[in-house]
Design a protein that fits this description.
This is AlpA family transcriptional regulator. This protein is of the alpha+beta class. It has a three-stranded antiparallel beta sheet with strand order 1-3-2. The longest helix has 14 residues. The chain is globular, with a radius of gyration of 13 Å.
């Protein structure tokens, strides 16, 4: 897998939550914090985001439909 640095907008789209929900999850310790970049801005490693998705999915319950 190739490493990509994601902006908040991309992270929110990737995990299918709003940006405000992602910020709340970061504040509550439920989502990893991004890294401050030397030229400004905050980015998340695509690997970190994918790992969070896999972990969250593995821990989730099956939906009863």
């Amino acid at each position: 897998m190739t490493l990509h640095l994601l902006r908040m907008r991309e992270v929110a789209a990737r995990i299918a939550y709003s940006e405000s929900k992602v910020y709340a999850m970061i504040r509550d310790g439920d989502f990893p914090r991004g890294r401050k970049m030397p030229m400004g801005g905050v980015r998340w490693s695509s690997e970190v985001v994918e790992a969070w998705i896999r972990k969250t999915y593995a821990e989730s319950e099956k939906a009863s439909l």
